[in-house]
Amino acid sequence: EDAEKMANFQTRIDSEDRIEANDWMPEAYRRTLVRQISQHAHSEIIGQLPEGAWITRAPSLRRKAALLAKVQDECGHGLYLYAAAETLNASREALMDQLMEGKAKYSSIFNYPTMTWADIGAIGWLVDGAAIMNQIPLCRCSYGPYARAMIRVCKEESFHQRQGFEIMMTLAKGSARQKAMAQDALNRWWWPSLMMFGPPDTDSQHSDQSTRWKIKRFSNDELRQKFVDATVPQAQFLGLTLPDPDLRQDEVTGNWIYGEIDWEEFKQVIAGNGPCNQDRLASRRKAHEEGAWVREAAAAYAARQASRNAA
Ligand code: ACO
């Protein structure tokens, strides 16, 4: 019977049917989605920290307002994604506990420090640019609640990418010191941004199954290549140099061939040994503890409302 259910499920996937929360699904499909969606949610939540650090130091009111809105958007994305994971019977509290205990993964990129204001430009341009490249295809993911959440997320990411590019543009066209700051931020964020797409296809353990289930529409290396091809002309437009001496355009395909990525660094960062892993988790735990009174007040209010309704 299970074999028949499995076959029917794959037929639905193959015909581009959307799977919804109450539909039958293989346990491994549910687990894969909870893994990916929760890691994605954690990335949005932790992703607030490196940029949040610059809200008080933004160089103008206009920059502060845009950055504040952006960081709030990331928080909203995390909440939609936890809600999408809840449709798969994963409890939000359990997922958050896993994050705070250091047992859950989140994107490697958020374990690097934001050293100067130019980093806020580089993050918007590169990190949000990479996120869009990866997330546009997720709008067509086979699981309905995840796919629908991605539509709004992608619209907001595209605003984030533009605000980042505009910061880079202002710095790159500014004084020599400002341009040097922009170049320095690009030098530090370029390689970690390429790592966001995950390990090379040959080492990507989940890709084959996730592709058959149409959770993934493109491989890690395909998306990485699309990102490089889109970003090289933007760097040229800014008059900045990508920190890759091996970068060259393939005459036949037009693709930009990039140099070797330091996969050892990637492994270290996802194993918890990146420059800021400890600091990020400590900040997250502190925020959670400091928010305890809000959760308690909300629970007390809900209990009072419930007893009033019962009376
Ligand atoms: N940072 C941390 N962990 C990573 C990264 C990364 N950049 N890339 C891959 N990994 C992890 C995977 O989660 C997986 O770990 P697990 O088995 O413990 O769960 C392992 O490395 C092997 O990788 P893959 O087999 O390639 O994993 P997968 O098929 O899930 O592909 C990818 C990875 C592309 C990141 C996918 O999960 C995805 O598209 N996720 C949704 C997007 C997302 O999470 N974006 C977060 C950053 S964008 C932002 O928040 C602004």
UniProtKB/TrEMBL annotation:
GO MF term list: phenylacetyl-CoA 1,2-epoxidase activity
One GO process term, biological-process aspect: phenylacetate catabolic process
Highest taxon of the lineage: Bacteria
Pfam families tied to this protein: PaaA_PaaC
InterPro entries for the chain: Aromatic_CoA_ox/epox, Ferritin-like, Ferritin-like_SF, PaaA, PaaA_PaaC
SUPFAM superfamilies xrefs: Ferritin-like (SSF47240)
Annotated Gene Ontology cellular component terms: cytosol
The protein's name in its UniProt record: Phenylacetic acid degradation protein
Organism: Acetobacter senegalensis
